[in-house]
Amino acid sequence: MGILPMIHGQDARATFDFVRSSKNRTFAKLRFDMFRMRKGRSMKKQMFARICQGRAVLLGLVIVVAALAGMAADKNTEPALVDPGPIGGPPSDAIVLFGGKDLSQWRGKGDSEARWTVGDGCMTANRTGNVFTKEEFGDVQLHVEWAAPTEIKGKGQGRGNSGVYLQGRYEIQVLDSYQNSTYTNGQAGAFYGKFAPLVNPCRKPGEWQTYDIIFHAPKPAADGKEVIPGSFTVLYNGVLVQDHVPVKGSTTASAFKGAVPRGPLMLQDHGNPIRYRNIWIRPLN
Ligand code: MG
Predict the structure, then answer these.
(1) In terms of domains, do 200 and 278 share one?
(2) How far, in Å, is the centroid of ligand 1 from the Cα of 175?
Protein backbone atom coordinates (compact mmCIF):
# COMPACT_ATOMS: atom_id res chain seq x y z
CA MET A 1 0.00 0.00 0.00
CA GLY A 2 1.47 3.39 -0.94
CA ILE A 3 0.42 6.95 -0.32
CA LEU A 4 -1.82 7.14 -3.37
CA PRO A 5 -4.62 4.81 -2.19
CA MET A 6 -5.29 7.08 0.78
CA ILE A 7 -5.86 10.21 -1.32
CA HIS A 8 -9.26 11.14 -2.72
CA GLY A 9 -10.99 13.28 -5.37
CA GLN A 10 -9.40 16.63 -6.38
CA ASP A 11 -6.56 16.09 -3.92
CA ALA A 12 -5.77 12.84 -5.68
CA ARG A 13 -5.58 14.51 -9.07
CA ALA A 14 -3.29 17.30 -7.75
CA THR A 15 -1.07 14.83 -5.96
CA PHE A 16 -0.94 12.62 -9.02
CA ASP A 17 0.25 15.52 -11.19
CA PHE A 18 2.76 16.69 -8.59
CA VAL A 19 4.35 13.30 -8.18
CA ARG A 20 4.48 12.64 -11.90
CA SER A 21 6.41 15.86 -12.53
CA SER A 22 8.70 15.69 -9.49
CA LYS A 23 12.40 14.80 -9.88
CA ASN A 24 12.66 13.76 -6.23
CA ARG A 25 13.88 10.15 -5.83
CA THR A 26 11.51 9.67 -2.93
CA PHE A 27 8.66 9.57 -5.42
CA ALA A 28 10.27 6.99 -7.68
CA LYS A 29 8.12 4.17 -6.34
CA LEU A 30 5.00 6.28 -6.66
CA ARG A 31 5.86 7.18 -10.22
CA PHE A 32 6.25 3.48 -10.95
CA ASP A 33 2.85 2.85 -9.40
CA MET A 34 1.32 5.57 -11.50
CA PHE A 35 2.93 4.18 -14.63
CA ARG A 36 1.33 0.83 -13.96
CA MET A 37 -1.97 2.50 -13.24
CA ARG A 38 -1.98 4.37 -16.54
CA LYS A 39 -1.57 1.10 -18.43
CA GLY A 40 -4.66 -0.51 -17.00
CA ARG A 41 -8.10 0.69 -16.04
CA SER A 42 -8.94 4.31 -15.37
CA MET A 43 -7.04 6.01 -12.62
CA LYS A 44 -10.23 6.54 -10.61
CA LYS A 45 -11.10 2.83 -10.65
CA GLN A 46 -7.56 1.82 -9.82
CA MET A 47 -7.33 4.26 -6.94
CA PHE A 48 -10.67 3.02 -5.60
CA ALA A 49 -9.44 -0.57 -5.81
CA ARG A 50 -6.27 0.33 -3.95
CA ILE A 51 -8.18 2.15 -1.25
CA CYS A 52 -10.29 -1.00 -0.74
CA GLN A 53 -7.19 -3.14 -0.76
CA GLY A 54 -5.54 -0.88 1.80
CA ARG A 55 -8.56 -0.98 4.10
CA ALA A 56 -8.76 -4.78 3.82
CA VAL A 57 -5.12 -5.02 4.90
CA LEU A 58 -5.80 -2.64 7.79
CA LEU A 59 -8.85 -4.67 8.86
CA GLY A 60 -6.78 -7.85 8.70
CA LEU A 61 -4.16 -6.29 10.95
CA VAL A 62 -6.83 -5.25 13.46
CA ILE A 63 -8.21 -8.82 13.55
CA VAL A 64 -4.75 -10.31 14.08
CA VAL A 65 -3.97 -7.85 16.91
CA ALA A 66 -7.37 -8.57 18.56
CA ALA A 67 -6.77 -12.33 18.33
CA LEU A 68 -3.32 -11.97 19.87
CA ALA A 69 -4.78 -9.81 22.65
CA GLY A 70 -7.47 -12.47 23.27
CA MET A 71 -4.84 -15.18 23.51
CA ALA A 72 -2.88 -13.06 25.97
CA ALA A 73 -6.05 -12.52 28.06
CA ASP A 74 -6.71 -16.28 28.13
CA LYS A 75 -3.20 -16.86 29.40
CA ASN A 76 -3.87 -14.40 32.20
CA THR A 77 -7.03 -16.17 33.35
CA GLU A 78 -5.50 -19.52 34.24
CA PRO A 79 -8.09 -21.41 36.38
CA ALA A 80 -7.35 -21.19 40.08
CA LEU A 81 -5.91 -24.27 41.72
CA VAL A 82 -8.38 -26.06 44.02
CA ASP A 83 -7.59 -29.08 46.18
CA PRO A 84 -10.73 -31.21 45.81
CA GLY A 85 -10.10 -32.93 49.15
CA PRO A 86 -11.35 -36.47 49.79
CA ILE A 87 -14.26 -38.02 47.88
CA GLY A 88 -17.28 -35.90 48.85
CA GLY A 89 -15.12 -32.88 49.62
CA PRO A 90 -14.92 -30.27 50.91
CA PRO A 91 -12.73 -28.67 48.24
CA SER A 92 -10.19 -26.15 49.48
CA ASP A 93 -12.18 -23.11 48.30
CA ALA A 94 -15.52 -24.17 49.87
CA ILE A 95 -17.20 -22.71 52.94
CA VAL A 96 -17.79 -25.58 55.36
CA LEU A 97 -21.25 -25.08 56.84
CA PHE A 98 -21.20 -28.23 58.95
CA GLY A 99 -18.06 -30.24 59.51
CA GLY A 100 -19.47 -32.55 62.17
CA LYS A 101 -18.70 -30.64 65.37
CA ASP A 102 -20.87 -27.59 65.98
CA LEU A 103 -23.61 -25.29 64.71
CA SER A 104 -21.45 -22.15 64.70
CA GLN A 105 -22.50 -21.42 61.09
CA TRP A 106 -26.20 -21.78 61.90
CA ARG A 107 -29.05 -19.96 63.62
CA GLY A 108 -32.69 -20.59 64.35
CA LYS A 109 -35.63 -18.41 63.35
CA GLY A 110 -34.83 -14.70 63.58
CA ASP A 111 -31.79 -14.22 65.78
CA SER A 112 -32.47 -17.30 67.89
CA GLU A 113 -29.91 -20.03 68.45
CA ALA A 114 -29.91 -23.18 66.32
CA ARG A 115 -30.88 -26.05 68.62
CA TRP A 116 -30.63 -29.17 66.48
CA THR A 117 -28.88 -32.12 68.09
CA VAL A 118 -25.18 -32.47 67.33
CA GLY A 119 -23.42 -35.80 67.86
CA ASP A 120 -21.59 -38.60 66.05
CA GLY A 121 -20.53 -36.10 63.37
CA CYS A 122 -24.16 -35.28 62.50
CA MET A 123 -26.68 -32.54 63.06
CA THR A 124 -30.20 -33.91 63.51
CA ALA A 125 -33.62 -32.30 63.23
CA ASN A 126 -35.32 -32.55 66.63
CA ARG A 127 -38.57 -30.58 66.40
CA THR A 128 -36.91 -27.31 67.46
CA GLY A 129 -37.62 -25.66 64.12
CA ASN A 130 -35.89 -24.92 60.84
CA VAL A 131 -32.25 -23.87 60.90
CA PHE A 132 -30.62 -21.21 58.71
CA THR A 133 -27.06 -20.34 57.81
CA LYS A 134 -25.84 -17.09 59.30
CA GLU A 135 -24.25 -16.23 55.96
CA GLU A 136 -26.39 -15.49 52.93
CA PHE A 137 -25.75 -16.71 49.39
CA GLY A 138 -26.69 -16.07 45.77
CA ASP A 139 -25.61 -18.54 43.07
CA VAL A 140 -23.91 -21.56 44.62
CA GLN A 141 -22.62 -25.09 44.33
CA LEU A 142 -23.84 -26.98 47.41
CA HIS A 143 -22.99 -30.41 48.80
CA VAL A 144 -25.24 -31.98 51.44
CA GLU A 145 -25.28 -35.49 52.93
CA TRP A 146 -28.38 -36.73 54.72
CA ALA A 147 -29.88 -39.91 56.11
CA ALA A 148 -33.47 -40.86 56.96
CA PRO A 149 -34.07 -42.87 60.16
CA THR A 150 -33.26 -46.56 59.92
CA GLU A 151 -36.50 -47.42 61.62
CA ILE A 152 -39.37 -46.78 59.24
CA LYS A 153 -42.18 -44.72 60.71
CA GLY A 154 -45.05 -43.15 58.82
CA LYS A 155 -45.64 -43.15 55.09
CA GLY A 156 -45.72 -40.81 52.12
CA GLN A 157 -44.80 -37.25 53.11
CA GLY A 158 -44.74 -38.31 56.78
CA ARG A 159 -41.72 -40.60 56.36
CA GLY A 160 -38.27 -39.05 56.66
CA ASN A 161 -39.33 -35.58 55.54
CA SER A 162 -36.99 -32.59 55.58
CA GLY A 163 -35.75 -30.25 52.89
CA VAL A 164 -32.85 -28.19 51.58
CA TYR A 165 -34.13 -24.67 50.92
CA LEU A 166 -31.86 -22.45 48.86
CA GLN A 167 -32.18 -18.85 50.02
CA GLY A 168 -34.82 -20.12 52.48
CA ARG A 169 -37.20 -20.15 49.51
CA TYR A 170 -36.63 -22.96 47.00
CA GLU A 171 -36.79 -26.53 48.30
CA ILE A 172 -35.06 -29.62 47.05
CA GLN A 173 -37.12 -32.20 48.91
CA VAL A 174 -35.57 -34.58 51.42
CA LEU A 175 -37.74 -37.65 51.97
CA ASP A 176 -37.32 -41.37 52.58
CA SER A 177 -38.35 -42.30 49.03
CA TYR A 178 -37.19 -45.91 49.29
CA GLN A 179 -40.28 -47.94 48.43
CA ASN A 180 -42.44 -45.11 49.74
CA SER A 181 -45.20 -43.93 47.44
CA THR A 182 -46.12 -40.25 47.25
CA TYR A 183 -46.82 -37.63 44.56
CA THR A 184 -43.94 -37.47 42.08
CA ASN A 185 -42.96 -33.84 42.61
CA GLY A 186 -42.89 -34.40 46.36
CA GLN A 187 -40.40 -37.25 46.55
CA ALA A 188 -36.69 -37.00 47.37
CA GLY A 189 -34.77 -35.00 44.79
CA ALA A 190 -37.88 -33.12 43.64
CA PHE A 191 -37.88 -29.35 43.28
CA TYR A 192 -40.81 -29.50 45.62
CA GLY A 193 -44.22 -29.12 44.00
CA LYS A 194 -42.69 -28.11 40.66
CA PHE A 195 -40.42 -30.75 39.14
CA ALA A 196 -40.26 -34.47 39.97
CA PRO A 197 -36.79 -36.02 39.95
CA LEU A 198 -35.83 -37.58 36.60
CA VAL A 199 -35.21 -40.92 38.36
CA ASN A 200 -35.38 -42.28 41.91
CA PRO A 201 -31.87 -43.26 43.12
CA CYS A 202 -32.86 -43.33 46.83
CA ARG A 203 -30.85 -45.60 49.14
CA LYS A 204 -32.35 -47.63 51.95
CA PRO A 205 -33.45 -45.91 55.18
CA GLY A 206 -30.49 -45.21 57.46
CA GLU A 207 -27.95 -45.10 54.61
CA TRP A 208 -26.17 -41.85 53.76
CA GLN A 209 -27.31 -40.03 50.63
CA THR A 210 -25.77 -37.09 48.80
CA TYR A 211 -27.11 -34.01 47.08
CA ASP A 212 -24.87 -31.96 44.82
CA ILE A 213 -26.80 -28.90 43.80
CA ILE A 214 -25.98 -26.13 41.33
CA PHE A 215 -28.30 -23.24 42.05
CA HIS A 216 -28.68 -20.00 40.16
CA ALA A 217 -30.96 -17.61 41.98
CA PRO A 218 -33.93 -15.93 40.29
CA LYS A 219 -33.30 -12.22 39.96
CA PRO A 220 -35.64 -9.25 39.89
CA ALA A 221 -35.95 -7.77 36.39
CA ALA A 222 -35.12 -4.13 35.76
CA ASP A 223 -38.74 -3.07 36.23
CA GLY A 224 -38.74 -4.60 39.73
CA LYS A 225 -41.96 -6.51 39.00
CA GLU A 226 -40.97 -9.43 36.78
CA VAL A 227 -38.51 -12.12 37.82
CA ILE A 228 -35.72 -13.49 35.65
CA PRO A 229 -35.79 -17.25 36.37
CA GLY A 230 -32.82 -18.98 37.97
CA SER A 231 -32.15 -22.72 37.77
CA PHE A 232 -31.55 -25.94 39.68
CA THR A 233 -29.28 -28.76 38.58
CA VAL A 234 -29.19 -31.60 41.10
CA LEU A 235 -27.17 -34.81 41.36
CA TYR A 236 -28.72 -37.21 43.89
CA ASN A 237 -26.28 -39.93 44.95
CA GLY A 238 -24.30 -38.90 41.87
CA VAL A 239 -27.30 -39.35 39.56
CA LEU A 240 -28.81 -36.44 37.64
CA VAL A 241 -32.35 -35.76 38.91
CA GLN A 242 -32.86 -32.07 38.03
CA ASP A 243 -31.38 -30.88 34.75
CA HIS A 244 -31.20 -27.09 34.73
CA VAL A 245 -34.88 -26.67 35.57
CA PRO A 246 -36.19 -23.11 35.92
CA VAL A 247 -36.58 -21.55 39.37
CA LYS A 248 -38.97 -18.66 39.71
CA GLY A 249 -41.41 -18.73 42.62
CA SER A 250 -40.76 -19.97 46.15
CA THR A 251 -41.96 -23.41 47.28
CA THR A 252 -44.43 -24.52 49.94
CA ALA A 253 -43.38 -23.81 53.54
CA SER A 254 -40.60 -21.47 52.47
CA ALA A 255 -39.41 -19.09 55.18
CA PHE A 256 -39.30 -16.11 52.80
CA LYS A 257 -40.79 -14.99 49.52
CA GLY A 258 -39.64 -12.84 46.60
CA ALA A 259 -36.48 -12.88 44.50
CA VAL A 260 -33.44 -11.50 46.27
CA PRO A 261 -29.71 -11.39 45.44
CA ARG A 262 -28.80 -13.36 48.58
CA GLY A 263 -30.52 -15.43 51.21
CA PRO A 264 -29.65 -18.02 53.86
CA LEU A 265 -29.57 -21.75 53.25
CA MET A 266 -32.32 -23.42 55.30
CA LEU A 267 -32.73 -27.02 56.46
CA GLN A 268 -36.29 -27.95 57.20
CA ASP A 269 -37.45 -29.44 60.48
CA HIS A 270 -40.54 -31.33 59.36
CA GLY A 271 -40.77 -33.32 62.58
CA ASN A 272 -38.73 -36.31 61.42
CA PRO A 273 -35.20 -36.93 62.81
CA ILE A 274 -33.26 -36.53 59.57
CA ARG A 275 -29.49 -36.48 60.05
CA TYR A 276 -27.13 -34.21 58.09
CA ARG A 277 -23.35 -34.17 57.74
CA ASN A 278 -20.58 -32.81 55.50
CA ILE A 279 -22.35 -29.68 54.27
CA TRP A 280 -20.27 -27.28 52.21
CA ILE A 281 -20.96 -24.52 49.73
CA ARG A 282 -19.09 -22.63 47.00
CA PRO A 283 -20.47 -19.21 46.07
CA LEU A 284 -20.48 -18.77 42.29
CA ASN A 285 -20.82 -15.01 42.18
MG1 MG B 1 -39.70 -31.19 52.87
Answers:
(1) yes
(2) 7
